[in-house]
């Protein structure tokens, strides 16, 4: 570990990064809880879906890259934030239901971008090769939503609709390429998250979908 | 590790604890096998469901807290007990079908209590924080049934019905709080398992359900 | 580690073994992609299903036996092969659709045999007991297909139809028994893979199914 890396490790996660990460966790937890209510789950099912949606992607990534126990198991603030997201929806469902759809989509896209770049960066730090690091960025972004849909016995939405996972992968590619050509880490991660965010928003706005093969 | 902990580690698992644990494994395996038959699975699907229902919760917990390889992968007696549970159902289905429902519910509640307190205690031993240790107790208790339901492409029953996971969490809370305030471990685990058991039985008897938000 | 084992470790995986392994990966990835197209997934869902079907079984095995990060996360060639399998199906679906069914079944049976014996052998190398090592062979062979089916919200085909997982387990048993009685590793693995392959092919040809209990 170089001196720079050691310093990074000592100060990491800094307050801003942690705050942004917990905000993303909260947003994803709220979405999991809203889905749970629509599926007629009870308070406990709601909390499980909040937890799984918010933290599932990061947990899968950490287990795959060997960062065990996963960050959100080791640090109680992640679990607490996820449960807080579920709890506020339980008590203030009326309020959350009236949040304008575009605002939710915007917050979700922001969370997606953050999770994707953080996931790719962490995979690289653990010595994972670039191809898989990109996939780990994608997994971090969409893994939670995938678990949520599997628990509801539905085909995961990310597998069939919209440019969602693709936006996460785009952000992760920016990070992996940028770090490989030794651009500053902070810059690379900001640009990657922005790329994911913009791609996702434009895709929603323009109704972009990925190509598919028609079976016959 | 203190002298007391070292001694605990040296003698653990003692014969009684192991016997009780394997009994819980057997009961859960039987339930998995009964579900498999109702879903028209063949002998192999039946054994898979026995194994997953009986050992899935503990395996998820062990992988999340970093106890790898999981206990039931390392110790052949767990796998053998789970397969024995499935095998006896396959050959004596008639008999198991005639076991009175209240007896099955009672045995299941006992297994749930045991798994929940054992899961929470193990998480604490591995240095997991109290909040997540409680959740790990819950995961140990209901994880196997959740995997079983996912494999059958159904929404896990624990997410939507009854006071089941809630009872597991209650037992885990007793353990985590009790150990934090340094009560004797054996006492704490017994009280926790009893609390889970009683809560579950009363909930079945009184048809308790958790509150839910009605979507509209 | 004995001198013999050390030598094995130094040369492993040799070129032939790697080539065969990647070929199996490619075949399973193609099957995952074909299923994705039939389920009307987009290009990304197709690649996810290719990756999960081809590598899911080995990833679960590696995580359970403590070989973390899993081989296919550490070595980019596995992920690249899986994505190549998905990509060629996307661009040449017409061609793959016209591949005769018996050829696909034959290739699949070959891949199954290879995965099963490789999985059992690796579990033994990691000090896993014989019973679980056999199950790990089965998991390696059918885990990917199980994940694929769960993602499509279907009951995994291996749980209810044909002699498929049973063939994988048979191959794994040959390996575990053979290595225990100290027969040459290469011989044991070849015979195990052949046993799995032949059993699977005969089962398809003769429409063999495993027994099941009829619920009433």
UniProtKB/TrEMBL annotation, chains A, B, C:
UniProt subcellular location: Cell membrane
Residue spans crossing the bilayer: 43-64, 102-120, 132-151, 163-181, 188-208
Keyword list, A-Z: Cell membrane, Membrane, Transmembrane, Transmembrane helix
Domain Glycine transporter residues, every copy: 19-93, 106-177
Similarity remark: Belongs to the UPF0126 family.
Keyword Membrane part of the UniProt annotation: yes
Highest taxon in the source lineage: Bacteria
PANTHER family named among the record's database cross-references: INNER MEMBRANE PROTEIN, UPF0126 INNER MEMBRANE PROTEIN YADS-RELATED
InterPro entries: Gly_transporter
Cellular component annotations (GO), alphabetically ordered: plasma membrane
UniProt keyword Glycoprotein present: no
Source taxonomy: Bacteria, Pseudomonadati, Acidobacteriota, Terriglobia, Terriglobales
Name the UniProt record assigns to this protein: Membrane protein
Main location per the UniProt record: membrane
Membrane topology qualifier: Multi-pass membrane protein
């Amino acid at each position: 570990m170089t001196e720079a890396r050691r310093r990074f490790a000592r100060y990491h996660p800094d307050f801003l990064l942690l705050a942004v990460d917990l905000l993303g966790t909260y947003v994803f937890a709220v979405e999991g809880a809203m889905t749970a209510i629509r599926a007629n789950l009870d308070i406990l099912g709601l909390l499980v879906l909040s937890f799984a949606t918010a933290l599932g992607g990061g947990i899968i990534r950490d287990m795959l890259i060997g960062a065990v126990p996963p960050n959100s198991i080791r640090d109680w603030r992640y679990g607490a934030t996820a449960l807080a997201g579920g709890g506020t929806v339980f008590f203030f469902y009326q309020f959350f239901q009236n949040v304008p759809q575009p605002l939710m989509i915007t917050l979700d896209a922001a969370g997606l971008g953050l999770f994707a770049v953080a996931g790719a960066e962490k995979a690289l730090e653990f010595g994972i090769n670039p191809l898989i690091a990109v996939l780990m960025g994608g997994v971090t972004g969409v893994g939670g939503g995938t678990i949520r849909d599997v628990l509801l016995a539905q085909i995961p939405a990310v597998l069939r609709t919209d440019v969602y996972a693709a936006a996460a992968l785009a952000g992760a590619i920016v990070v992996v390429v940028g770090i490989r050509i030794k651009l500053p880490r902070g810059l690379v991660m900001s640009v990657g998250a922005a790329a994911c965010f913009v791609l996702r928003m434009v895709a929603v706005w323009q109704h972009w979908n990925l190509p598919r093969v028609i079976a016959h």
